[in-house]
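Entry type: protein chain
Record version: 2
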Amino acid sequence: MVHPGGRPPMYTTAEQMQELIDVYFANTPEIEITITGLALALGFHTRLSLINYQGKPEFMNTVKNAKLRVEHSYEIALRNNGRAGEIFGLKNFGWDDKSISEHQGGVTFTRIERVVVDTKEIE
């Protein structure tokens, strides 16, 4: 049978992928864990390739769990160090650092009218 087109998938089962994910997390110091590092460890050439596997139902939970483990490492690093790099990394996972301020008190509006005067009437 001829392949229908495109590159054949790197992984045919989630278990194959999970083995390499486990190796990556076991052999990478927590401070060095990244999505890009995970993608490289899985043999991908882009982060998008990893994300594309998340769209396949049989790989969805495997990739989501791996991404959650990366997110966890950023969160721990943020707690321990509080550097901008960790904040940026967490923002890529959907975290937000907006501040909310509430205003109390009233607002007073003053009405200003403009009147056009015909100068001929003044003379």
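Comment: The helical segments are 14-27, 35-41, 47-54, 60-81, 84-91, 119-122.
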